[in-house]
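SEVERITY: medium
COMPONENT: batch folding queue
REPORTER: lab tech (J.R.)

DESCRIPTION
The queue accepted two submissions in a row. Attaching both inputs and their returned structure tokens so the on-call engineer can compare them side by side.

ATTACHMENT 1
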Amino acid sequence: MRLQGALDNDILVVVRRFLADGVPADVENLYTAIQRSNSSLKRKPKKVLQSSLERILDFLEPERDAPSEDSDAAIEKDLPKDDSTAQLMNRALRQNLMPASPSVVSRI
């Protein structure tokens, strides 16, 4: 789905901001939010705004439906589960963090 013009691009910016602020993603709620805002978009005809909002919501739908999984989670999901390697790494890290001996700490 493609956006049709400058109006759609302007409304896209406003809709993303409203969605981030917690406005529900439907035409009526977004239209009401635009009318309450201090935006010049509120002076556009209602039918023009609503049709543009429908295009915007169709355009944003794949973004909203995509799972919000970070890239590390996808990589870790494919890695085999090997607890012995994790335990060795843990032990090595803890040994590196421990002071060498109590006498070295007291001299500093």
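ATTACHMENT 2
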Amino acid sequence: MFQDYRGLRVIQYPADALPAVPGEPPPDLLRLTRAFSDESRLRILRFLATGPRSFTDVVQFMGLAKSTVHHHMVVLRAAGLVRVHDRGDVTTYSLRPGAVDELGDRLHTFFQAE
């Protein structure tokens, strides 16, 4: 969530406030695996892997409604897969370096936990 106030931009990010339930998949792992479970989101990630893109670029590439692309971008951001680059008048999105590699590590950690 973005908020501009008297020349100051405040950016808020969601945080997991509740502790994970032992034996259950942690919320961050669920967000990550759900983000990968949609074909459109995988296509968006592949597009963003080539470099920073504007929201309009993503909409044009996908050929979907803005609201649909917005939903997918929110899911990808909440999963920690996409970075937002806010330069005042221009906002771009890119694949977060190392984010895809974390999937295997997180799954391994969950599967090995007792």
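NOTES FROM REPORTER
The chain has five helices and five strands.
No errors were logged for either attachment.
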